[in-house]
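Project standup — Tuesday

K.O.: blocked on the structure for the chain from last sprint. Re-posting the sequence here as requested.
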Amino acid sequence: MIVTIGGIPVYDAIISDAETGMFKISLVDDPAVMSNFQAFDKQHIPQMYAIQDEEKRLVRGVVMRANFPIYRRDERMGEYYIIYKADQIRLMAEKYLAESRQNDVNLMHQEDSNVDGVQMVQYFIKGDGVSVEGFDDCADGSLFAEFHIINDDVWAEVKAGTYKGFSLEGVFDLQPETDADEVQDIVDLLGGAFRRLFKHSKNTNMSKLSRLKAALAKAFAALGNVTTDKGVLAWDGDEDLKAGDSVYIEDAEGNRTPAEDGDYKTEDGKTIVVVGGQVSEIKDPEAEVDSTPAADPAPANEEMETITTDKGDLTYTGELAVGTEVFVVGEDGESTPAADGDYKVEGKTIKVVDGKVSEIVEDAPAPAPAEESAEVAALKAQIKELQEKIEKMSKMSAAKPAHEEIKQSAEVGKTGIKGLDNLSRILSAK
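H.V.: unblocked you, prediction finished:
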């Protein structure tokens, strides 16, 4: 598995064939090795060098630092680090001299060009008894060069600070680094030197320093960064984040800026409160109130509507529809969201969930009477006819029987006629 520094993959630069190696040294304003060369005139000659001709103008600096992660970014590979290890630097240095390229020098990597009046006078590797004053932060195995600047214009630019160091040009194979322990050793060794460089350097590219500082900080402490809802929050040190720690936000290029004030929520539910670029408080999820905020009371400047239900009055603004907030008014006159449930009004039911109308259900109309069948109609007619007959018979039963009517009509007074009187008596007897 490829090793990373701060999540960025690490590759080793390899000399693999005749087509690979260092081809040119360039004087630049922003050396990738992040170490400026030293410029010497007759007033500034290091004691360890015995310069016979005090009129010579010399510059000495790092061509390539051993075991130093150099940040790179391109469209093909994205972000990555390159490390030149001591064994490959030696191969590179030997091949460079064997090809007689020691005076192949240009300015600012100008393509297909060499500058006149810049001649190499020394070329060596630090270590094995060879030390370099002023470059204590460079590991053993680092390649150095010293040039005699004859060109007046170039020397003036060097003294003015336009050119600050060396940068090599070459072609190298990239081999993924797989030795995590070795990379960690490199990072550990660079930590102190890097912090000194960052603290004391006055003429360095701060953007590049910031990127490397962020990467080293991540490598030093696995807990030195945390993903939040506002990006990755980073801090220095090898301890857990705590109140008082300075925190930063890192952009895509690795630049770190103080985190803005606000709440930063982590993936495990914590809330990091930042004030003035520092952590003021870290809230655990259980310490926070986890509830749905109550609906805001109806605005006082809008006219309230009221509807009477089986559970009391509901108030609302605007049109009563799905989504409308509904309230009940207490005895104190304060409006509170209506409780969940069904509120029945004439002709419909209002369903309330979370203080809002979730559904309005219209009551179903009463079913229309079914049409009578012919059989039912016939039965009803028969029933009516029987009722009429019964009623008529009940009236007849209240009258006198027929024979009594005849008897009454036959009861007449005596006529004196013996035959008629006898007939009358007989009829009366019946």
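K.O.: great, moving the ticket to review. The helical segments are 86-98, 152-160, 180-200, 206-220, 374-396, 402-410, 418-429. The first strand starts at residue 4 and ends at 5.
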